[in-house]
Amino acid sequence: MSRTPSLLAAALLLLSAGCSRTPNAGPAPHQIHVVGSSAAYPFSTYAAERLMREEPDAIAPLVRAGGSGEGIARFCDGPGRLHPDIVVATRDLTSEETRRCAAKGVVQVARVPLGFTAFVIVTSRSAPEWTPTRALLTRAITETAPRWSDLDPALPAAPIRIEGPAPDPAIADGLFDRILPPRHGAIRHDGGYKGHGADAELVAQAVAATPGAIGILPYAQAVAHADTLKMLPLDGIMPTPETIVSGRYPASAPLLLLAKASEAPAVAHLPRLLGYYADALAPGGAFTARGLVPLPAPAAEDAKHRLLSLEGH
Predict the structure, then answer these.
(1) Which of 25, 66, 133, 232 has its CA 20 to 30 A from that of 33?
(2) CA–CA separation, 81 vs 40, rounded Å?
(3) Distance between CA 24 and CA 8 in Å, rounded?
C-alpha cells in the first residue's frame, strides 16, 4: 500500500530517533534531508529505503514532498545539517533563488537531470471518457460555475469537483505554470477545487472515492494507481513516455536533482544515497519501474556520471 509523505516522514523520524546520540555523545549526527516536488517522492523514497536496507548503521533520511518552490526555498536557507541536502524539483532555480542561495552561503549547486514527469488529469476508471482542455480547466479552477455544463453545454450537468495540490505557489508552481495561463485568476474556494497540500496520495484517494471527480496528479502517481484511476488526454494529447519526452504533452516537466556540491562528499552516507539515484537511472531500472519517464540513453549515462562525481568517485 502506498505511503503518504507525512506518514513516511514520521516513520523515518522514528527510525532515526533510535539512532540518535545522547547529549553527552557529542554533536548530533547529520540526518540526510531530501525535499522537493511530490512528482519526485516515489524516487527519493526508493533511494532512502535502499540506503536503510543496505547501510544498517545509517540514520534514516528524512524525505518530504512539499512542492518544488517550497523545497528550493528551504534548500537555499543555508549550508549545514539544519537545511535540506537535496531538492528534486520540476524546474531549475530562478535567478532570484540563485541570488538568495548565494547570499545564504549556498554557492555551489550541482544540477543533475533525472528524467521527465508530467502533471496529468485523472478520473475513476468507471467514469466516461472525455478530453479536457487547459482553457476549460482554467475556467473550472478559477471561476465559480457549479456544473460542467455551465462552462460548455456539450458537457454533462454534473457538479465540478477537481482534486489537486494546495493552491499555494510554493507547492504547486510547477503544476499550475503548465496547466493554467501565466495571469490566471485566483483559485476558487467554494468546493469546486479542493487542495490536498503536496500529498498526491490524498488526491488519488479523493478522486477514486468521489463519483465524477477529476484530479491533477504527477505521472508516476497516476501510473501507481492505474487499477483505480485512468489518465485523460489534455488538449487532445494523452500523456505517454513518448509525448512527455518530446514535450508534445502540454504539462510535461523535467525532474532535476539539486545538491550542495561542496558539502555532499562530507555528509555521512549522502555519497552512497546519490549512488543509489545513479543506479536507479539505468534503462529499465528502479525509477522507470516507478513511473519516471527516462532520459535518452546518452543523457542518462551523463547524469549517472555526474551523480557519481558528487559521490566522490
Answers:
(1) 25
(2) 22
(3) 29
Half-sphere exposure for 210 (CA within 13 Å, toward CB): 22
Residue 69 in grid coordinates: 518552490
> What is the dotted CATH code of the domain comprising 5-20+30-116+254-311?
3.40.190.10
How many residues make up the chain in this entry? Answer: 313
The 3-state DSSP class for residue 88 equals strand
> What does the pLDDT profile of the chain (313 residues) look like in tens digits?
444 454 444 444 434 433 433 444 556 789 999 999 999 999 999 999 999 999 999 999 999 999 999 999 999 999 999 999 999 999 999 999 999 999 999 999 999 999 999 999 999 999 999 999 999 999 999 999 999 999 999 999 999 999 999 988 778 776 777 888 877 889 999 999 999 998 999 999 999 999 999 999 999 999 999 999 999 999 999 999 999 999 999 999 999 999 999 999 999 999 999 999 999 998 889 999 999 999 999 999 999 999 999 865 4
For the chain, the structural domain boundaries read 5-20+30-116+254-311, 117-246
| End-to-end Cα separation, the chain, in angstroms | 36
Please give the CATH architecture assigned to the domain spanning 117-246. Answer: 3-Layer(aba) Sandwich (3.40)
Task: Indicate the burial class of 105 (C-beta count within 10 angstroms; 0-12, 13-18, 19 or more).
Answer: middle
DSSP per-residue codes, 121-174 = EEEETTSPP----HHHHHHHHHS--SBHHHH-TTS-SPBP-EEES-S-HHHHHH
Alpha helices in the chain, H assignment, sequence order: 5-17, 41-54, 68-75, 95-103, 134-142, 148-151, 169-179, 200-209, 219-224, 241-246, 270-280, 286-289, 297-311
d(CA 112, CA 98): 16
pTM score: 0.88
